[in-house]
Amino acid sequence: MNFLDFHCDTIGECYLQSKSLLANDLHIDLRRASKFSAYGQLFAVWIPDEKRGNAAFSYYCAVRDRFYHEIQTNFEYIMQCRSKEELHTAFSQKKIAAILTVEGGSVLGGDLERLDSLYRDGVRLMTLTWNDTNEIGHGCFSKNKNRLTRFGKDVVQKMQKIGILVDVSHLNERGFFDVAEYTDKPFIASHSNAKIVDNPYADARNLTDAQIRVFIERDGLIGLNLCADFLGNDGNTGMDAVLRHIMHFFELGAEKNLAFGGDFDGCTVHPSLNGIEKIPLLFDYLLQHGISESVLEDIFFQNGYRFLVANL
Ligand SMILES: [Zn+2]
To answer: So what's the pLDDT on residue 133?
Structure first.
């Protein structure tokens, strides 16, 4: 089967825990991932909210260099992709297609020019905020419920101009609607579920129906998050919870806007889903529970691939 996933924190964990991407005890390694016929993964450099200014950028550089190191060391398995042509090359050579992303616009340190250097590094998606406030806007757990800043408006417009995908996962609701207003191209929520779960984490992080409708209108993309807190409550956070979120997205008509952003190595995941090797089992489970093979192929790969080909 094919799999394309829009968010994981694996490369940051490889850096922090000095683990190899080839074989490790994390959620993702290349050995386990090479079982797919085609596999694309967006690898995020997560910037903690404690890091701002030069500290945020230095941390990004360190994790980015770890990403480059893993790509070079494991070139037989994996290839960095910066364009749709490179994605095509990776898949035709049966290599894992890896795209570098940043989770946290604090990496810019308030400097618009820094987007150009991220682009040169091969960054093709940036999540505007993490949970708290930064120079661009306010995360979903920030006390500040305001709009994007003036700088934030400039950032999203420049991102779309130079070709870095705008990611609204973690952003507060006001900021989300600002992104919709300030941009004309499609944007993405790389790892966000539907607001159908009643707990404070899910309530802040998941998407309202009104937000989901914007993705449908704008040909945007939503990556399903496998994080237990955002899927359900009381241990009901496994495959059935994923099915429940998918059915909600389908009810709103988001069949062509849905992909995966599993958040592997960035959160706690139910034992039935806690690693890249569980993805084929999830596919089978959903198939057995009434979703057709062609719709599943869309969610697990084609919707995301189509989105990248149209927007990279
Ligand atoms: Zn995240």
So the answer is: 98
